[in-house]
Description:
Layout: E1 13-18, H1 27-39, E2 43-48, H2 55-61, E3 65-68, H3 78-91, E4 95-99, H4 101-109, E5 118-123, H5 135-147, E6 153-156, H6 159-167, E7 175-177, H7 191-201, E8 209-213, H8 222-235, E9 240-244, H9 249-261, E10 268-272, H10 277-283, E11 286-289, H11 299-306, E12 310-314, H12 319-323, E13 328-330, H13 335-347, H14 349-366, H15 369-391
Parallel strand pairs: 1-2, 1-4, 2-3, 4-5, 5-6, 6-7, 8-9, 8-11, 9-10, 11-12, 12-13
Amino acid sequence: MTEPGLAQPSAGSVLFLISSLPPGGAERPLIGLAAGLARIGWRVRVVTFTDGGELAGDLRGRGVAVESLHRQGRRDVIGFAMRLVRSIRRDRPDVVHAYLLGPNIASVLLKPFARGASIVWGVRASDMNLGHYGRRSSLIFALSCRLARFADLIICNSMAGLDHHAARGYPRRRMIMIPNGIDAGAFVPDPVARGMIRSELGVQDDRPLVGLVGRLDPMKDHATFLRAARLVADERPDVRFVCVGHGSDGTRDALDALTAELGLGDRVRWAGGRTDLSAVHNAFDIEVSSSAWGEGFSNAIAEAMATAVACVVTDVGDSAAVVGDTGWVCRPGRPEELAAAILEAVARPEELARRGELARRRIVEQFSEDRRDRATAAALAGLRRRRATVAG
């Protein structure tokens, strides 16, 4: 199936289902989509499995209702399921739109209790190397492959994700691709923010700064980024690097050890998790995505592009398709290729600035929030019409 048309559909009601609302890669697009659907006339509610999540307040501030089911660990199965059923029956939505594996599976298992609601799955990743995440992750994905046929619609945010899941048993005829949308009014070029973040990081304005935004996770392949940084530093000692993102203490310790082993010293800054990402992107001259697998649509790369920062990416997920001709694309796991692209970029500042301008234009024209919202609304409205036809 191709992307739905962008005509204004008749509004309905949708209940989003997600485990929690931390400031992560899959969760932030849900915030924008929920608010966007509400803005164009849909009745929207977001239900989370567990308490907490920094983004819940953001949603409420945009006028979207948020409810927690207060799940208390893995043993809270029956009580949790009963609370979810009550929540769905009370709201009686036209659509239950789940996000990520756990909520996707829960939505189809409880479909008989949803009183006619259409079930939509949200797929946000591509080819995940599940061997890095334990046997449980592999079992959950295998279960999702068996249950996917019970979803009425599966929305992927990347063609790489659609193709990967279809090849493993998801029903292609029920799958569509709608890319993420970026708020180009929030992610804008900002010289003041650039200066503030660079001052905070201790990086002088005349030093090229190369950034990576992403959680400290094996799929992001920080090790390849660091090895590329070593090769760049050998040629350009003035270049500095920064990694922005949270992760476990063990992962950070291992990356600190590799940084020391490579002799990078104070050339690399570790900024931890940040919520002021527009300002952070502005501080960079180049943004890198060194991911080894699993990317669908990279929010970090698209947000950097919106702030007119050119990107160097690995050809994983839809990263190359998002960047187009505005950046540089390398094979994953090749620090020498990553380093060569970074060196080419910093050696050509005028070309780097030109590509940054093209990158922002590309996001505004092809990956806007409005385009995503209307495409999603059209897809959900199509489900409502089909269900009404069957009922009639």
